[in-house]
Amino acid sequence: MSNNNSLKVLLAGAECTPFVKLGGLADVMGTLPKELNQIGADARVIMPFHSQM
Fold first, then answer.
1. 35, 1 in Cβ contact below 8 A?
2. 16, 26 contact by CB (below 8 A)
3. Coil, strand, or helix at residue 23?
4. What is the pLDDT along the chain (53 residues), one digit of tens a residue?
5. What integer pLDDT is reported at residue 2 of this predicted model?
């Protein structure tokens, strides 16, 4: 859905809904990339692997 001219955003965090939620950061990490993608950005999330997931 992205093209070569789109804004590319990489979000890195320790938590992201719906996978790991401890506080408000998870809400931002789960929602912001979706909103950025809707306006044409190529937004992706990376987070550490948690063996309990």
1. no
2. yes
3. coil
4. 445 778 999 999 998 888 888 888 999 999 999 999 999 999 999 988 867 65
5. 47
Residue located via tokens 């998870």: 26
Q: Look-up: residue for tokens 């550490």?
A: 48
Q: Which DSSP category does 20 fall into?
A: B
Where in the chain are the domains?
A: 11-46
CB-based contact 45:28 (threshold 8 Å): no
Name the β-bridge partners of 44.
Answer: 10
Using CA atoms, how far residue 14 sits from 4, 5, 9, 17, 27, in Å, is: 29, 29, 17, 11, 12
